[in-house]
Target: Methionine biosynthesis protein MetW
Amino acid sequence: MSERKDLELIAQLVPQGSRVLDLGCGNGALLALLRDTRGCTGYGVELDDAKVHDCVQRGVNVIQRNLDEGLAIFADQAFDVVLQLDTLQNLRNTEAMLIETVRVGRLGIVSFPNFAHWPNRVSVLRGRMPVTKVLPYQWYDTPNIRVGTFADFEVLARKNGLRVLDSFGLQNGHAVRRWPNLMAGTALFKFERA
Model:
C-alpha cells in the first residue's frame, strides 16, 4: 500500500483514537497518517532494515520482527485495530496469523492482491501468470507465497469464526463495491471474532 488515496480510504475504517498494530507496516506512512489525522497511537512491525529506518524518521514506533514468528509478544486485546495491508500473501501461515489478529486486536483489517481481478483472469486465459501494478513480479521472483480472491478470504474467515464487517476492492485510489472480485486489483476486509 503506497498510494495516498488508498491509505486515506483505509484510515477511514480505523476508529478515531484507536490503538493500532500495523503488521508489515512498510515505511510507516499509514501509521503516521492515522496518528496525524485520527489521533491514533500504536506500533508497526516490519522486517526490512530500510523501512524500519523510514518509520523511525517519520516518528512511528516500530518493532523489527519476522511476522512468521507470530504475535506472542503481544497480550490479548492489546490493540483496538490490527492492520495487515499487502502482508497476508507473504506469510507462511495465513490462517494462524488471522487468528492471532483477533486475539491481539478487537478489529482486523487486511488487504491483499485480488487474483480474480479481470486483467489477471485474462493473463491466465492467455497462459501466463499476471504481472500488474498490484502483482508486479514475475512468477519466478515473487515474494508472494500465495494468491487469493474475495471468495477465498470469505471462506477462510467463516472457517475460523471471523465475522466480516465490511469488504470492498481498491482500484486506482477508489473503493470498488460493485463486483469487487472482478473489478478491483486489491481486496480489503474489516473483520472481528464472531
